[in-house]
Design brief:
TPR-like_helical_dom_sf; mRNA binding; mainly alpha; 0% strand; 826 residues
């Protein structure tokens, strides 16, 4: 059934989908590239475009605003400013201005409310310099709207608080309300409250608009007590409620099921509507009355039935009160619960249209489509939703994002298939090609859903994702930092090479580089270095490490964006390149040089730990010891200095364990004794379980199995078995650390070293585990009883040791399974 519906949709939309993504035009020849079909420069006379006057461009700007086309306005405005500059230098001062102040404010407000905040800021700056308009409070008000809608209300507040000093103007409650509304769009209730407090601190009292915005947000958060406190605060401060207040309260109480409270509001609102003149023609009054009527119809529907709501709407219609598509959409919300087919949805809308005398718009149809799409797939919900969408299109209803989004969600989540992706693509193409205005254009939520589908690990489609990102860039649609980061990571994981993954990052980042902060860049870089590919065209190395030039591109982007690499960035790269198959001390030394030369960097303990571990993993033990010695000069625990911590100790012990030289053993023994006495030069560090595990492993690697055995079954024995004999370790300035109880991992490491030592040692340690750690015996029994003392086992063991020794000589990974824990030690 779904395939049949999808096929019908493809047939209906086929003629439009072929035009959705035209082939890109050939790249124009550059100065360095030969031009085809010509061997000489074309004459400028024949190819010069006619120059439009400032008056012509002003008319086109106004028309773009009327047509709801911010993209066109953004393209025209630079040419308009240039034309104004040219005309002002060549004409007399008495010539008529191409735009009136009112028209300019309309254009600037249009840019501010359609996400063109940078354009609004440019218009603000151009007003006095290019257009001769002195800044007024209205200019500042529109700029605050632009900043707030762009998700930067903190910048808007800073602007308001500096207006008096920079422009000699004092912001009013209207400007502050724009910031409050910006925080509401961000669903930041704390930001709204903080803004109201700052208003009052500046001597600006909130008005009814402020309270209405706050009450609506409190309802969205489900904070009914907060709603009642806000209403009481209004009464206490003498702020009178208006129709918007009553509408907000009525809808809010109805949506949360507070019928008693809603009934009180309904009585007040009903009396206000009854006293309103029925022949009101004022645009503002009519819109308010229409909202109030919709609220009363909603109450009647909730308290009684859909038929009662329709009956009340007919009564209002007969009285001449304004009914609108909002009233119809309100009734549709309560009539779709029983819908099972697209035909039933169309019949519901037809009946409501006849009763109200209002034609169903895309919002009403979106409600029907969404209701059907939510039905189980087994009941044909998605198929009927697709049919309902097609019925709406047949009735010349122009779709918008709210109409498409439920279908995309049902098609693509939780995971898409090739068929559902094809249908989703046709839906998007229909929306993109039929949209003629900002209001009906695809919004961010549509692109988020589609990009998520493109990054599906089973059915990735990076080619379409690039096309979508191009559309987003053309339409000026941006995502926030968290969403951008998520989609970059998802698209990179769906790539088939490092080059393709970097291209996905580069394209998404280009939408708005300013939304990414240092944390986002580190997250993206971490995901990029975690990718595994067989080879990369950017690197001739035989392993699958990320190409160094691409890594440097990431770091360059971080610097140019104002978020230079920090300690976490370098620590990530040190760990990554030290674990690569081609890892070498030279690579780590090069990164070390970059760290020294980075003037923006403030090294910390985790970075030094990573540097020390990287040198150790590549076999540069002396370099690792130099890092340790440098860290000893700093005080541990001081947040301003990179002193040692427990992770540093584990790294030092692991380094000495793999070094194995007598000097390395003496160094580790000295450090361990200093830790026990609390006399370490770098400061007191309490030994952790990971430190004890590292010490056991070091003893095992040095062939000192008896000592390792004593630590595990003596110092790290369960409390009830632990001997409390004083052996001198507790002497000194500090009390001896209490050793943790040996874990399963500790015992496993000891068993492996015992098996490597001799069959007798393995039998002895296995028996001690059985006798002294019966709680761990079931988990380690298979390892403990492995018969590696046979001649065949001894031969396999020698081969294994030879391979491990070769890896250690080359500076590769730590070879034993127990040492894999080094990176988790804290």
């Amino acid at each position: 059934m779904r395939r049949a519906a999808a096929g019908a949709l493809r047939t209906a939309l086929g003629s439009r989908s072929t035009q959705a993504h035209p082939r890109p035009a050939p790249r124009p020849p550059t100065a360095s590239s030969p031009r085809p079909f010509s061997s000489s420069t074309p004459a400028a006379f024949f190819f010069r475009k006619p120059t439009k006057s400032a008056q012509d461009l002003a008319g086109e700007l106004v028309q773009a605003c009327r047509d709801d086309r911010p993209d066109i306005m953004a393209k025209l405005y630079p040419s308009f400013v240039e034309a104004v500059s040219n005309s002002s230098s060549s004409s007399s001062s008495s010539s008529r201005a191409p735009l009136s102040r009112g028209q300019f404010h309309d254009l600037m407000r249009f840019a501010a409310t359609t996400g063109k905040s940078r354009l609004a800021l440019r218009m603000f700056n151009d007003a006095p310099v290019r257009l001769g308009f002195a800044h007024s409070l209205e200019d500042h008000h529109i700029l605050v709207i632009a900043l707030s809608r762009a998700g930067r209300p903190d910048k808007a507040i800073a602007w308001l608080e500096s207006m008096r000093d920079t422009h000699g103007l004092a912001p009013t409650v209207s400007e502050w309300n724009a910031v409050v509304q910006g925080y509401r769009r961000m669903r930041d209730l704390a930001g709204m409250r903080a803004t109201v407090d700052r208003m009052r601190a500046r001597g600006v009292e909130p008005n009814v608009v402020t309270f209405n915005t706050l009450i609506a947000a409190l309802f969205e958060y489900g904070d009914l007590d907060g709603v009642r406190r806000a209403v009481a605060d209004m009464v206490e401060r003498g702020v009178e409620r208006d129709l918007w207040t009553e509408q907000t309260l009525l809808a809010g109480f109805l949506n949360v099921g507070e019928l008693a409270s809603a009934r009180d509001v309904q009585r007040r609102l009903k009396s206000l509507v009854a006293s309103a003149p029925s022949d009101s023609r004022g645009k503002g009054k009519a819109s308010i009355d229409a909202g109030a009527v919709a609220g009363l119809v909603q109450f009647e529907t909730v308290e009684h039935s859909l038929e009662a709501g329709v009956s009340l709407a007919r009564e209002f219609r007969e009285r001449g009160l304004p009914l609108s598509t909002r009233t119809l959409s309100t009734l549709v919300q309560y009539g779709v619960s029983e819908l099972g087919t697209a035909d039933e949805g169309a019949a519901l809308l037809d009946r409501l249209e006849d009763a109200l005398g209002v034609e169903a718009d895309r919002h009403a149809w979106s409600t029907v489509v969404a209701a059907l799409a939510r039905r189980p797939a087994a009941d044909g919900g998605l198929d009927e939703a697709l049919r309902a969408y097609q019925v709406a299109r047949d009735r010349s209803v122009r779709p918008d994002s709210s109409m498409i989004q439920p279908l995309l969600t049902a098609l693509l989540l939780p995971s898409p298939t090739p068929d559902t992706i094809a249908t989703a693509r046709e839906l998007y193409d229909d929306l993109a090609t039929s949209s003629k205005s900002f209001t009906t254009a695809p919004d961010a939520s549509v692109y988020v859903t589609l990009l998520r589908a493109c990054a599906d690990p089973v059915h990735p489609d990076l080619e379409w994702s690039r096309s979508l990102v191009g559309d987003m860039k053309q339409r000026g649609i941006r995502l926030d930092g968290a969403s951008t980061t998520w989609h970059i990571v998802a698209l990179m994981r769906a790539a088939s090479s490092f080059d393709e993954a970097f291209a996905a990052y580069d394209e998404m980042r280009a939408l708005d580089p300013s939304v990414l902060d240092r944390k986002d860049y580190n997250t993206i870089l971490s995901a990029f270095t975690a990718l595994k590919f067989p080879s990369s065209s950017s690197s001739s190395s035989p392993d699958s490490a990320a190409p160094a030039p691409l890594i440097m591109e990431f770091m360059t982007d971080m610097r140019t964006s104002g978020h230079p690499p920090n300690s976490a960035t370098y620590a990530l790269l040190l760990t990554y390149f030290s674990r690569a198959a081609s890892a070498s001390p030279a690579t780590i030394a090069h990164l070390h040089s970059l760290i020294k030369l980075d003037v923006h960097l403030d090294p910390d303990t985790p970075l030094f730990n990573a540097l020390m571990g990287a040198y150790s993993r590549t076999g540069a033990f002396n370099a690792a010891y130099r890092i340790w010695d440098a860290m000893l000069l700093h005080r541990s625990g001081d947040p301003t200095e990179a002193g040692i911590d427990a992770k540093t100790v584990s790294t030092l012990l692991d380094t000495a364990a793999h070094d194995g030289s007598p000097a390395a053993q003496r160094r580790a023994e000295r450090v361990w004794a200093d830790l026990a006495r609390g006399t370490l030069v770098g400061g007191r560090v309490r030994r952790t379980a990971n430190n004890w595990d590292a010490w056991v492993e070091a003893l095992g690697r040095w062939g000192r199995l008896d000592e390792a055995e004593q630590v595990v079954f003596g110092d790290m024995a369960p409390v009830e078995r632990r001997q409390r004999a004083s052996d001198g370790d507790g002497d000194g300035d500090g009390a001896r650390d209490v050793a943790p109880v040996a874990s399963e991992g500790t015992v496993r490491a000891l068993l492996k070293f015992a098996a490597r030592d001799s069959s007798e040692a393995q039998r002895r340690v296995a028996q001690r585990v059985r006798d002294e750690r019966p709680d761990l015996w079931p988990a380690v029994e298979k390892l403990a009883l492995r018969k590696r003392w046979t001649s065949e086992g001894q031969q396999d063991e020698r081969v294994q040791e030879s391979e491990e020794g070769g890896r250690e000589e080359r500076g590769g990974f730590f070879s034993s399974a127990a040492t894999a824990k080094v990176d988790e030690r804290n």
